[in-house]
Amino acid sequence: MSNPLLSVRNLTIDIPVGAGTLHAVRGIDFDLHRGETLCIVGESGSGKSLTSLAVMGLLGKNIKRSADRMEFDGTELTTASPRTMRALRGGRMSMIFQEPMTSLNPAYTIGDQLTEALLLHKKVGREAARARAVELLEKVGITAAESRLSQYPHQLSGGLRQRVMIAMALMCEPELIIADEPTTALDVTIQAQILRLLYDLGREMNMAMILITHDLGVVARVADKVAVMYAGELVETGPAADVFNTPSHPYTRGLLRCIPLPGKTERGSELGTIPGIVPSLIGDVHGCAFRTRCPHAEPACQNTIPMQGGEAHAFRCVHPDGKRHAEEEVPA
Amino acid sequence: MSSEASNAVLELRGVTKTYRVKQGIFGKSRPLTAVNDVSLSLPRGEVLGLVGESGCGKSTLAKILLGLEAPTDGQVLIDGKEILAQDRLSLARRIQPIFQDPYSSLNPRKSIFDIVSLPLRVHGVGGPQDWDRKVREILDIVGLPARVMNTFPSQMSGGQRQRVAIARALIMKPEIVICDEPTSALDVSVQSQILNLLGELRREFGLTYLFISHDLAVVEHLATRVAVMYLGRIVEESDVAGLFDDAGHPYTQALLKSVLTPEPGLGVPDTQLGMAYPNPIDPPSGCQFHPRCPMATDHCKSVAPRPVETSHGRVECHLHDPQSPMHDAKVA
After folding, report:
1. Lower CB density within 10 Å: C or N end of chain A?
2. Which of residues 44-73 of A touch B (CB under 8 A)?
3. Which residues, in sequence order, are bridge partners of residue B11?
4. Residue A68 in 3-state DSSP?
5. Model-level ipTM above the cut of 0.90
6. Cβ distance B117 to B171 under 8 Å?
7. Is B214 close to A188, i.e. CB distance below 8 A?
8. Residue A92 sits at the chain B interface (C-beta within 8 Å)
9. What is the pLDDT of residue B331?
10. Which H or E run includes A276?
11. E strand or H helix at A163
12. pLDDT by residue (tens digit) across B15-56?
């Protein structure tokens, strides 16, 4: 296979807090090829948004980021100058944020905000930029696109604003797009449309996409590759079909049991839960972070945890099969 | 509905709420019908799921039920008595809300004891010793240790806060609980705990829920009846099996189609809904759903459908009306 567009090895993010250091992201690895969609799934506080901000170089000044490698198409991002990062951001890699209500500037028109990145990164005139903006607004399904350019964000509904955000991220035809919960604030009907749109555009433009979400339904439907994140680590990675059909890490299986499955879960029955809470990541963190909540925990879980499985579908657990077979034999 | 008024704990008869909305500073004010002729009856111990896109009037309906808004027309009856005739306090004893966001629905400056005991103090029930005992009791019921009484909301996780909100809603032993998206701000593993708790409490105390949610998988799991709202109207109402297995209204079908179940390989569904939710100030003529309906004909554009009884509920669609010229088109 060709070289990956984005290659991350041992990405670590530490945040100094009053009492010590919060190890928010603890050594994660992933590769992303052109045209591929990677979904990072995890609960709040697992470090998935920080990971995306680290790739974009948008972390706050007091946050320490380190990595053995974080390469975007041959450019090492950890050592890149602010100038290089500025040239990449919004041009070759762009981001769609979660909150369409707050991430558009209320004081500028849609047209100004859409064309800004293009005028900055590419040698195009104002007219050409506006034409491109209209083209993309139409592509994301906004009617009367021409007249929208002179409107302000408050004149648009949530669904429309999210589409504007997507159009904005696509203006410079990025090679990598990072979408952080792009559909969480939206209705199910709009969610399906926006995801379809992202999916189709990704295929059409051969974009690589990192989609960050906590919604396993979204993950299953759009991901090529899935990375399940828990307490700052990737606990299971693999092709979407493998992760959903043979979920190997106990946490992945726990998550899947929490959601009611139409047609499978009996209506009104007790749903699965994951007892306990996420451990604190401040100070010395060792062993498996999930051991306090795991039904299969044993003393060995306090030591360094090996990766199990193959190159493609891997998970971090002391049990060679993640105790998957044990659970299948005795349905909980 | 055919169910007798006697066993309905909550009944709505032709409830309508119209707001006057001004367009622009000098614009004429125009009527906006947020809730349009809604009739529902909710038997004791049932869970009515209310689904629909944002702006369809779900929350306005909840406000009317809580006595926070007066309907422009129609009647709301609890146990056969008009709620407008009752004072706010006695209404609050019988019907209580649980809101979506436990981060903003709890006063950050009050201790958990103050928050949970407030209804007792407002209603003048018992003295300080009783309050202490009752708060301990209800915290135990919602699965919180008594020691949280002296902590503040900021010291709690989202799931714990939502348990506090549930404790506050239940301490006066209401009959009806309005749950407005009670789990959409929570992580999946916490969501399943709260859903299990709501189910247990219903069985234990014989509570009746109005469960407002945009997550259809959750509604299917918890509800016994479902009402689908579109532009202020209930376009379909049915028992849960009937709605999810044999949806009648094309809008319901589109909503069901847009649910993303965690099944890899199915891709993102095409809802064929088109883009825009109509502006409620200019509702479409005839059947209000016709601009987005894949089955619409000229008849739908001019004639509004009437409610038709089905084997498991009621639906407002020409396809299901034996007297409509479109009835035969149903097969196609």
Report:
1. N
2. 44
3. B41, B77
4. coil
5. no
6. yes
7. yes
8. no
9. 44
10. none
11. helix A158-170
12. 999 998 877 777 788 889 999 999 999 999 999 999 988 888
- A53-58 LR contacts (CB < 8 Å, sep 24+): A54/A11, A54/A13, A54/A25, A55/A6, A55/A8, A55/A93, A55/A178, A55/A210, A56/A89, A56/A93, A56/A95, A56/A178, A57/A82, A57/A85, A57/A89, A58/A89, A58/A95
User: Where are any strands of DSSP class E within B141-183?
Assistant: 176-180
- What backbone torsions phi and psi does residue A17 show, to the nearest 5 degrees? -125, 170
CB B11 within 8 Å of CB B176: no
Across the interface, whether the CB atoms of A214 and B188 are under 8 A apart is answered yes
Which residues numbered 35-54 in B keep a CB inside 8 Å of some CB on A? 53-54
Report residue A327 CA to chain centroid gap: 29
When pLDDT is averaged across residues A174-180 and rounded to a whole number, the result is 94
pTM: 0.88
B304 backbone dihedrals φ, ψ, rounded to 5°: -75, 135
**How many CB atoms sit inside 10 A of residue B126's CB?**
14
Which of A197, A205, A186, A204 has the alpha carbon at shortest distance from A222?
A197
Question: What's the pLDDT score for residue A275?
Answer: 85
Say whether A270 and B196 touch across the interface (CB within 8 A). Answer: yes
Residue B267 has pLDDT above 50, yes or no: yes
For residue B332, pLDDT beyond 60: no
Mutation to test the B interface, candidates A271, A274, A278, most B Cβ within 10 Å: A271
Cα–Cα distance measured from residue A313 to residue A234, given in angstroms and rounded to the nearest whole number = 12
- Are residues B232 and B33 in contact, defined by beta-carbon separation less than 8 angstroms? yes
pLDDT tens per residue across span A135-151: 999 888 787 888 899 99
pLDDT in tens, A234-252: 999 999 999 999 999 999 9
Q: Which tokens hold the place of B50?
A: 């209310």
Which residue in A220, A254, A272 is closest to B262 by CB distance?
Answer: A220
Q: Which residues contact B276 (CB under 8 A, 6 or more apart)?
A: A143
The single residue listed with the structure tokens 């009806």 is: B176
**Residues of chain B contacting A215 with CB distance shorter than 8 Å:** 260
User: What backbone torsions phi and psi does residue B230 show, to the nearest 5 degrees?
Assistant: -140, 120
The C-alpha atoms of residue B183 and residue B221 are separated, in whole angstroms, by 13
Q: How far is CA A131 from the centre of its chain?
A: 30
Task: Report strand pairing: B73-78 vs A37-41.
Answer: unpaired
Q: Which residues of B touch A273 (CB under 8 A)?
A: 189, 192-193, 196
How many CA atoms lie within 13 Å of B215's alpha carbon, on the beta-carbon side?
28
What are the angstrom distances between the C-alpha of B230 and each of A32, A251, B53, B122? 42, 38, 7, 37
A216 to chain B: closest CA residue: B262
Q: What one-character DSSP code corresponds to residue A245?
A: H
Which tokens sit at B210? 């109005």
pLDDT at B6 over 60: no
Give the residue from B182, B181, B164, B174 showing the smallest Cα distance to B205: B174
- Contacts with A, B 8-37, CB within 8 Å: none
Which are the contacts of A204, defined by CB distance < 8 A and separation ≥ 6? none
A19-42 pLDDT, tens digit per residue, is 789 999 999 999 999 999 999 999
Round to the nearest angstrom and report the end-to-end CA distance of chain B. Answer: 29
% of chain B surpassing 70 pLDDT: 96
**If you average pLDDT over residues B128-134, what whole number do you get?**
93
